[in-house]
Amino acid sequence: MPRVLRRCAVGAAVVLAFTLLPDAASADPEWTSAIVTGAVIHGARSEWDTSFYGAVRGDALFFRTNRHSLGFGPALEVGTAGFSDVRLLGSAELLAPLGEFLAVSVAPGVVMRSSSEGAVAGLSGRAFFGMRAYGYTDYSLNGGLVVGFDQDLGGPREHAIVVGLQIDGLVLALPVLFLVSAFHGSGD
After folding, report:
1. How far apart are alpha carbons 42 and 139 in whole angstroms?
2. pLDDT tens digits, one per residue of 19-66
3. In the chain, count of helices (H) and strands (E)?
4. How many CB atoms are located within 10 Å of the residue 112 CB?
5. Inter-residue contact 143 to 128 (CB < 8 Å)
6. How many structural domains compose the chain?
7. What distance in Å separates the CA atoms of residue 86 and residue 178, rounded to the nearest whole number?
8. Phi, psi (degrees; rounded to nearest 5) at 6
9. How many CA within 13 A on the CB side of residue 75?
């Protein structure tokens, strides 16, 4: 078990090191927030189950100076497989634009999964394909398809295959913000 913790600590140190790089030679970070909703096939050995997968996700990409440049930075995700566990993922994301608005990204990282069986560390990876606008105001709208894989390194050695839709958090918040603004503005 200590080897698993060392691997997680090394992964976290790599992500932290890239977030602390000086930004003198790069643009301001571009960040996003999103909700991921979809399905997960998970289990150990021959016992597989299909469940709902839901997560809240955020990232901050550095080195993007325009909509055609690569981005690299940390990503965090908190999710659940069928509401039977909690998954905390930390990864280093690399984004490559595929045109004006489309992009693909890969995010290898580490996962800590906590369930009624206890907590277990593992490896994870996520791939994204979809719309990712360049963030001229530091926020970048996004939405598309997410495919992922989680692998426990200890305990029950569970595997998980995630397929879902990533929906921009700001787009989901806009109707609420509009209603709050309408109610507060009605007294003027």
Report:
1. 33
2. 555 444 446 888 999 999 999 999 887 788 999 999 999 999 998 888
3. 2, 8
4. 15
5. no
6. 1
7. 32
8. -60, -40
9. 28
Q: Which residue do the tokens 């909703």 mark? A: 37
Enumerate long-range contacts of 70-74, CB under 8 Å, 24 or more apart. 70/94, 70/95, 70/96, 70/97, 71/30, 71/95, 72/18, 73/18, 73/19, 73/29, 74/15, 74/16, 74/18, 74/19
Residue 145, domain extent: 2-185
* Neighbouring-strand partners of residue 128: 105, 146
pLDDT band at 9 (very low <50, low <70, confident <90, very high): low
Name the residue with tokens 């994870």. 124
Rounded Cα distance, 81 and 21, in Å? 34
CA dihedral 113, 116, 117, 118 (to 10 degrees): 50
For residue 57, give the CATH number of its domain.
Answer: 2.40.160
Chain-centroid distance of CA 4 in Å reads 22
Beta bridge partners of 115: 85, 118
